[in-house]
Design brief:
Length: 154
């Protein structure tokens, strides 16, 4: 590979270097100006934070001293309602429960149930009960006659 050299004359090189230095000076000046602005903003923020802290502290001190005192509530309506309720309760207690009356009653049919199916079942039971009683009576009379006959035969 061959290296090609580009020949730059002294004048062109001098102009280029001067331009680069000027550009660098402008960049440095701009950076200094930006640093100054940042420092100014930092100072402003520090002052604002100090002011905020003083405002918060003053706010806390103001509202820490506040006392709220409520007036006594009017309970006369509630007391009246309680008194009337207690009077009603005492009247009910004075009336008292009715004495329990115990009665022995024999009922064939219940007083509360009035269905025809119930009457049919109860009638059927009554008929079977009567038939059973008649059967027992007949058996008793037959057995007693048989005992009397066997006692006579001996």
């Amino acid at each position: 590979m061959e290296s090609k050299e580009i020949g730059i004359d002294e004048m062109t090189l001098k102009e280029m270097l001067e331009e680069i230095f000027k550009q660098e000076e402008k960049v440095l000046a701009f950076m200094k100006m930006q640093e100054a602005k940042l420092e100014e903003k930092d100072n402003t923020l520090a002052e604002m934070s100090k002011q905020t802290l003083t405002l918060v502290n003053s706010f806390e001190s103001k509202y820490a001293k506040i006392e709220v005192k409520a007036s006594q509530p009017d309970l006369s309506g509630i007391k009246g309602e309680i008194n009337t309720g207690l009077l009603t309760i005492s009247r009910v207690i004075e009336k008292g429960p009715k004495p329990v009356v115990r009665q022995l009653r024999l009922t064939l049919f219940p007083e509360q149930v009035r269905s025809p199916e119930y009457y049919r079942i109860m009638l059927t039971r009554a008929i079977w009960g009567i038939l059973g009683l008649v059967f027992l009576i007949i058996c008793y009379t037959l057995i007693s006659k048989h005992m009397d006959l066997s006692a006579k035969m001996r």
